[in-house]
Amino acid sequence: MPYPVPPSRLRPPRTAREVSRLRPLGLVEAAFGKSPGVVLAAGPGYGKTSLAAEMGGIYLALAEEAKDPAVFLWHLLYAYRDRAGLSEAARLLEGGAWPRALEAFLEALEPLGPQLLVLDEAHRAESPGVLKALEGLCRLPSLRLLLLSRKAAPFAFLTVLTEQELAFDPEEAWALAKALAPELPAFEVERAHSLVRGWPLGLRVVLLAMRRGLRPELALESGEGLLTYLAYGLPQELLLKAARLALLGEVPEEEAQDLLPYAEDLLLERRPGRLAFHPLVRSALKALLPEAEARELLAQAAETALHQGEGVRAAEFLLEAGRFGHAADLLLKEGQAWLERGLTYTVLRLLAHLPEGVRRGRTGLFLLEAEALRQAGRYREAEAAYQRALEAGEGRAYLGLVRLFLDTVEPARARPYLEEALKRFPEEASPLLAENLLNEGRPEEALALGLSGPRVLLRLGRPDEALALLKEAQDPGLHRPPQNHREGTLLRALLECVAGDAEEGLRFAERGRFEAEVLGSPFGVSLAEARKGHALLALGRPAEARGAYQTALALAEGGPARLRVEALGGLAALGDREAYGEMVRLARAAGDLWVEGFMTLVVALAWLRRGEAFPLPPLELLDPFLRAVAQAYPFADGFEGLLLRYPFLAGRTLFTPPLPRLRRGLWRLGRLPEAYHPGVSVEIRTLGSFQVLVEGRPVRLRREKARLLLALLAARDWPKEDLLEALEPTFRTPLPWP
């Protein structure tokens, strides 16, 4: 598989298990009875990993880089590589379409039957996308998910067991003492248990120190003070060697032969061919080394990691060594490649550890941060970072700003930066010019510059061809938010609403929302709600459509102005004239004349289907499809040629004419199987005051008794005698009954 996951992350460490912890195991089993997912949330040393190892299952330890959902999914694929058919998920993930890969992965897990998945160090991988992936895992009825975390808050949607449940009780403390130091009297074991307040790792360290002759006096409830007990009675040279090796966190077993006799005292964790130090032990031992020596050793470890191709680990060693300049240089050299691999959150995390003075001397870091923020969908922060890079003299920030405003579909804002980029980087800026021309509503010029794809066909007035092309295409890769609406699922949702089936448009809008949530893209989530509103509007479900559009507007707050355009247009289609004016203003401010014409016609058709007139304003429509629809509006006699050119208008779409006019047109084309009758739309409202509407307009029945009869029949089914009795005060003669 393309992304390398260290094998050591796929096996739980082998630690001493002198005590079988039946009490907390029972608590975990009981928790699984209430929830498909359980979290063991406690600080280091509370025995979370040891407890999970007793339960078996598939084990996976996570690192900071797994904050990126694509990397997290690669870890899952490695963990299940011998258990499930994952070729489809791997194919999608290799293409970057990881939200779709997650769906394929979940489908591959369904036939496996009951299973337990243990995710260790889950707090290190916390991110919105990973949380959405965990929610997806919890939907599998056969999967039990056990998270081991130092924090409970991110995983509050699952059942949480805390330090209180995981701490040793007196009985467990006595059992551990009998295994480690049977010579200790009960009162000393009780004292040790009291000093550590049930902390499992602390109790183990104190008992081992007591076995070596120490009498505990200091309370030990956390990593502070651990060294006092850990080092007691052990040779100083051994401790110094352990400290040097502990800096690496994990070392080959042959390099630590001298430590093996003391593995129990040092709480070493055994992994295949390697020894690992508990994080708290590592921190405590590090304090034994002079600062200069520790820094030198960490720098050497970074050099070794670089030679082994582990650049991210090397950067982490350099940061820990305080060699911020070297870490910054490594980020400058490798950071862009890491972004291309999808390590967005990793790059942002490493940059956050660099002091401001180090950044100031390396202006390329401003540009790297801007690129990472844009890739994460944090557009406001990205714009500020690009501006800072420009001020520092980084000319490539012009390209970044153009890409940013292509992502947010704001061609007017992109234009001045594009002009500068074309002067400085003509080859790289030329494709960006083509896409910006497309966003301005000039698709022929974009096509002449070599741009192609479904969006080009849509704006060329060929939505049916655009939809067919998108259906045939492989997933374009959704590893960053902009692609979700530019080439992927949300574009499919829009095209289905224009030239396909609105029911399919609704399905893809809901899928697009899931993908956007997984990608952590508020932009995508808002746009997904707007596209959902379009589908509901075309399906004739106005109340639900209004709710979707209002949600889209709320989510768009604080985002690019262009993001509000479709939602405002949708509300205008439902009768809000003020929303229409705001929609036009924002579309023109963004410089996207195509979307102004598109949404104006959506509004006009929606009003017409309700039986209301919407006078079309003058529109500059270069799109031949939109121009043909505008010319046919309001679809009086003679518009049949439009149905011949665009037969999809007879389906459930945003541009479908009112049903009576559509039927008349199809009848004239000889495409109705029965004789044409224009018909009328009759609506009877019984909620509140009784109303009858014909073609959307209220009507008044000539006779009050006819109105009453209709109201009674609309309320429920009546037996003849009961109906006559109910009408008796009104009718003096019985109604003739068939």
UniProtKB/TrEMBL annotation:
InterPro entries: P-loop_NTPase, TPR-like_helical_dom_sf, TPR_rpt, WH-like_DNA-bd_sf. It comes from the Bacteria. This is Tetratricopeptide repeat protein. The lineage of its organism: Bacteria, Thermotogati, Deinococcota, Deinococci, Thermales.
